[in-house]
Design a protein that fits this description.
CATH topology of the largest domain: f41 fragment of flagellin, N-terminal domain
CATH architecture of the largest domain: Up-down Bundle
Radius of gyration: 41 Å
CATH class of the largest domain: Mainly Alpha
Number of strands: 14
Number of helices: 8
Order of helices and strands: HHHEEEEHEEEEEEEEEEHHHH
CATH superfamily of the largest domain: f41 fragment of flagellin, N-terminal domain
Helix content: 40-55%
């Protein structure tokens, strides 16, 4: 086969193009810091890098979710702390009002302070996050959950919980619905309540109540009836006598696993009704206290009636404090879970980045050396090409 000059030139130019292509690729590697940018350049490592990048992107999305959830939960935590502060202030006001020496004017002033606390609690129950979503509305985040009424407040949210995924197979609730936080609060001591009969004329006041033997109480209703100022009997819901005895002010009356302490002097015919606890909104508790304070001791309302109303409010406030404390404990648990998961994700992402770098990262020293060598080779080749183009047999025959 005859090798013509044009064929030599074409082959030489192809070699020059390849050298220039190699230089361009090396320059691109140096500028990007990557040893390859397409799968065709390194199919095996490119496949591994693709898998690592997909896992990294998913982990980073989980981290974003966790950070968002952490912000929302911290907002709830702050709101619950403020709720507890307001409830404790309300409790202090109730104790002040129950001193027995507070004037009607002071009771009215205390009622006004309680109303302010009620408004503060309403504002906290309608707390919004940075996006304008109501944190206590359940899944109905665009709906204001609470509106005050004459007897407490209406709830317009739902019973759901917003959740986000913070890891594979792991989701966390970003809040608690307002029904669980503010409405589902047990009355009395959390197991049963004691209320004075509406027709009581004596000065009997309800004191501490407790469950002495949980196995002895089956959730029934009872009535403590005074047949005389110093004699009582306890009837069950079937009007059967459960126990009876002689009353002494301040003593504990025990029956069916329950203990009820009364003070003051009940009158013959007075009664105290015992019933299982029910759920009551904290706003109803506050409104009942406000009503009692505004009524005070006036007309047919006696100091005994006021004291019993305040005692009931104190029990219910304590239950609200306990409920919000329980919810806040759950909030703390979720924050701890997120903190732990963020730490795990940070370590995982660092390992993935390291794996990607080890496969795709560029050895700069080696790349720079290669570039110098390629440039030198190209320069020499171009000089050689120039010289060969100047060679001709006619130069030697002239």
């Amino acid at each position: 086969m005859r090798i013509t000059q044009s064929m030599e030139q074409a082959q030489f130019l192809a070699s020059l193009n390849q050298l220039e292509s190699n230089i361009s690729q090396t320059q691109k590697q140096i500028s990007t810091g990557l040893s390859f940018t397409t799968a065709s350049q390194n199919p095996v490592d490119a496949g591994l890098v693709s898998n690592y990048n997909a896992t990294l992107a998913q982990s980073q999305q989980y981290t974003s979710n966790a950070n968002s959830a952490q912000t929302d939960i911290n907002t709830e935590d702050t709101a619950l702390t403020s709720v507890q502060t307001q409830l404790q202030s309300l409790r202090d006001l109730a104790l002040e009002a129950d001193s027995g020496t507070v004037s009607s004017e002071n009771l009215t002033a205390i009622a006004a302070q309680a109303t302010q606390i009620q408004n503060s609690l309403l504002s906290l129950a309608n707390t919004q996050d940075g996006s304008g979503n109501y944190i206590f509305a359940g899944n109905a985040v665009q709906t204001q959950p609470f509106t005050l009424t004459a007897t407490g407040a209406d709830y317009a949210g739902d019973q759901g919980q917003q959740k986000v995924q913070i890891a594979a197979g792991l989701s966390v609730a970003t809040g608690d619905n307002g029904d669980a936080v503010f409405n589902q609060i047990k009355t009395g001591n959390g197991t049963f309540t004691v209320a004075p009969g509406t027709g009581n004329t004596g000065t009997g006041i309800i004191g501490a109540t407790s469950v002495a033997d949980p196995s002895g109480y089956t959730g029934g209703s009872y009535s403590i009836d005074f047949t005389a100022p110093n004699t009582y009997q306890v009837l069950n819901s079937s009007d059967a006598v459960v126990t009876s005895g002689t009353y002494t002010a301040g003593q504990t009356i025990s029956f069916s696993g329950l203990q009820v302490t009364l003070s003051g002097q009940p009158a013959a015919g007075d009664s105290f009704n015992v019933a299982p606890s029910i759920h009551q909104s904290v706003f109803t508790t506050v409104q009942n206290l406000i009503n009692a304070l505004q009524t005070g001791v006036s007309g047919t309302n006696s100091q005994t009636q006021l004291s019993n109303s305040i005692a009931a409010a104190l029990n219910n406030i304590d239950q609200a404090l306990s409920q919000t404390s329980t919810v806040q404990a759950g909030v703390g648990g979720r924050l701890n879970l997120i903190t732990t998961q963020l730490s795990v994700a940070t370590s995982q992402q660092a390992q993935l980045q390291q794996s990607i770098t080890s496969l795709q990262g560029l050895n700069y020293a080696s790349a720079v050396t290669s570039l110098d060598s390629e440039n030198t080779t190209l320069s020499a080749a171009m000089q050689a090409f120039t010289l060969t183009q100047g060679l001709s047999l006619f130069k030697f025959l002239s």
